[in-house]
Amino acid sequence: MLSRICEEGLAENLLAAMQQPLDLALRVMELRAYAGAKHALVNAKKKEEIPNSPMVLTVMEIQAELLETLGKLKPGGPKKYVQKQRGKDEARGFGKKKD
């Protein structure tokens, strides 16, 4: 984890990484992962170019909720797909939601 904090540019060295607030570092990494997943999803020209990751599903879920809220999407459509994919991920041990 400490080396990942350094790789993300949140600390210059391991000693500095040990002094970083862990919750802040994890949040920054999560937001960067979200941004990367959204970028990949938006720029994919084919279905095969979309990464198979829990964060991509999170992006899809948030986008669907926003579109539903704006009235541009019928309730439930993409959410059902995301829920189905999340079920597959959880069966494989990925993306389990925290209580």
Kindly summarize this structure in a few lines.
With 99 residues, the chain is mainly alpha-helical. The chain is 65% helix and 0% strand.
Report on this model:
There is one protein chain. This protein is mainly α. It folds into two domains: 1-45; 52-99, no CATH class. It is built from five helices and no strands. It has helices at residues 2-7, 14-18, 22-43, 54-69, 77-91.
Strand/helix succession = HHHHH
Tell me, rounded to a whole number, the average pLDDT.
82
Number of helices: 5
State Rg. Answer: 16 Å
Low-pLDDT regions: none
Shape: elongated
Helix-strand makeup class: mainly alpha
Strand content: under 5%
Query: Quick one: biggest sheet?
Result: none
Helical amount among residues, as a percent range? 55-70%
Q: Give the terminus-to-terminus CA distance.
A: 23 Å
Number of domains: 2
Describe how the helices and strands are arranged.
Elements (H helix, E strand, L loop, with lengths): L1 H6 L6 H5 L3 H22 L10 H16 L7 H15 L8
Helix pairs in contact: 3-4, 4-5
Tag the structure with descriptive keywords.
65% helix, 99 residues, 0% strand, single chain, mainly alpha, 2 domains
